[in-house]
Amino acid sequence: MIFNDFGFLFAFLPLVFVLFYFPGVTVLRPYLLIAASLIFYSFAGIEHAIVLVADIVWVYFIVTRGSFRRSDAMLYAAIIPPAIALAYYKYAGFLITSAFDIAVPETRAQFSLFLDVLLPAGISFFTFQVISFAIDRHRGEIDVLPSLPTFATFISFFPQLVAGPILRYHDVSGTLLTLKSLRMDGDKIARGVGYICIGLAAKVLIADTLSHYIEPYRNAPELVSQFTAVYVVFAYSFQIYFDFYGYSMIAIGLGALFGFSFPHNFNRPYEAKSPQDFWRRWHMTLSFWIKDYLYIPLGGNKAYVRNIVIVMAACGLWHGAGWTFIFWGLYHAALVVTYHFTRNFWDNLPTLFQVAITFVLVSIGWILFLYDFDGVYTFILHAANSADSQASLPSLEMWIALGVAAAICFFVNFEKFAENKSNNLTGSFILNVTLAVLFVVTLIFLDRSETFIYFRF
Amino acid sequence: MQRVVIFLISSAILVVMVSYFSTYVPPNDPFNETNSSSTFSVSGISQSKFAKMKLRHAALSPTPYDVGIFGNSRALNISAKDIDRGACRFFNFSIGGESLRASAALIEQLSAIKKVPRVIIVSVDHFELQMYNNPFFISAWARLLHFFDDLGAGLSSGASLREITTVVWRTVWTQILSFQRMFEYAFLANTFRSMFGFATDQTEAAKVYLSDGSRRSNIASTNIPPVLSATNAQILPWQLKHDLGRIAAAKSAGVETIILYESFLHPTSSKYFDDNPSAHATRSREALLSTCEELGMKCITSKPKMDPEMSWSDASHPPRSFLGPYISELIAPYTPVCRS
Known about the structure:
The complex is a heterodimer of chains A (457) and B (340). Chain A has helices spanning 6-21, 29-42, 46-63, 72-99, 105-110, 112-115, 123-138, 148-156, 158-161, 169-177, 186-219, 226-257, 275-281, 284-295, 304-319, 323-341, 343-346, 351-365, 367-370, 373-385, 396-411, 414-418, 425-444. Chain A is mainly α. Chain B has 340 residues and is α/β, with parallel strands linked by helices. Chain B has one domain: 3-Layer(aba) Sandwich (Rossmann fold), CATH 3.40.50.1110. In chain B, helix 4 packs parallel to helix 8 and helix 8 (237-248) packs parallel to helix 10.
């Protein structure tokens, strides 16, 4: 089940919402959310839900042992099995195809156990969440252990299960522990409605429109010429941003409907003044996770270049099991390290220039998400050598869509709109009527909407 | 909470507006026989809207048609010319994408206004395909009434809890899908165009209709799958019997003859399923034949010999060059009065 689906918006969500706030059954709320989340997740496949449940039960079983906080071995016992599950489902096939020639039928048959597995949706997200819980508990940052239903709610809660934001226990522990006594909060629900409407619009009206325009080039990179290559680079850059931003906004909005305040995942990333700044603004919950659980344990700034290369390669690998993703991570490592050594020069450039160069460099990097290496090579070859013809040039409609996306990205403060706050009734009225219009217009285009890009990860 | 209420009321008003546009039927009757152009091209008009246009056309007709065919896209290409019944007034009431359940609902609605044809031919999907979705063209209110009717039929037939749950789930799912279809951009855009006098999108040649309600055949394909995949059991035998009862009830509205035939598959698939019939298809077929006999309807599941060289648009849509003469032969004994 996905957020941009009628079944989710008009059957699943209203039903769960009504049951959640139904008087007299508030004591069952954690169980309701767990059941709803498992149903939500099981639409991707029952067997995948088993991996999720196994991770939850295993980690909870280990972290509740008396010696857990004193024993490093117990910590490893908690986090290694979920990590192995992630490695098996996500990386085993990649490692085998990198090491062996699976075109040979015998070799393929030998490794079929690893090659023919389907990736459970969101496994990268919930694995990071169970690992962070175990580490935080081991570090003494979680004093009071939640009950198993509360822990299971934390990990499996459907708004964030498949593509984040990657929650830390302390982000939501306050709400989780008071879930049974939670009252319906009009402010939070209005905020939730605002975030859901804006998120859906970002995904369906902007990201999916751009996706529609670059679709021919996605499937056939040899179709690009000089101008279309420029178009594809920037259109895909805005597509991936509004796609994931839209998802994160919907997740925050859904969380708010049930009383949760999820952390933000984006802080206007394309306005970053440097590659380093970009990573403080893009997919922030992943950046902070990597910083706290990988970069700092590796020694942090003490071995800056080495650690940046390691964490950015890991970040690339987290996104996908493939050399293009690793290369994308290393590309960003190169950008961050280059910035580090040219900081005095870079920071003295005009702000507009800093933002522009960061945006262009980041956008070029996304091409590694769009194509495999052969595709990237073909794309570059044709971008460099194919002259534009009238037929190959992007249409005016395509440029308008790109221009609108850029204008919204750089000049519109969506969060302020989504917060759904106004000082007077007239303001509230206008704001909510506008949100309703946006919502219904989004519904009209929902049938051509695609799966969120980050579901792959 | 005030803000949420404003949002919900605004959204509800907008959804009602969308609903109005999505169910808006253009005022002109494209099936009007006096219309100088015998064909008209449409795209961006939903099949549900077509069902309403066909119903309205029947309602406006001074007398009921002599012959009417009901079904879905598998019978939609049959025109008056194909069945060649001379002076008989023929109309094709088929609705693309629907199942036998929709035919039953349409016949009921025509019976209610006393405009049901004198001879009815109903195309039933091949039982290996097990297509038995609830009708989409009816309103939510009618869907609710159908649901209670189904529930009553199920309980009186001793349906299992699982079957009752299936009926509930299918009703909910059809309602969600119907709601979803209300918002389809292409249909809404076309409604706006026709409401405000702009030309409708007429690019799809495959969607050219004739004034007898039939649709021009799709272009024959050379790429026919060798054998279609059989679907899992979906037809609930007691529900099939109940729907056949609803069709048979049209006799009280003046229908003289009701003929149901199981639709045809491409010879390759047909031969495969004849040799390897699934248990659920056999069960459904038996339910059809025994109920038809009980209710005095003529039901045919046997397949005539087909020319293997005949061109099909796909493996489950029989060509009209075959289907036309077949139907003509079926109804011949019942339509002597309108022979030219």
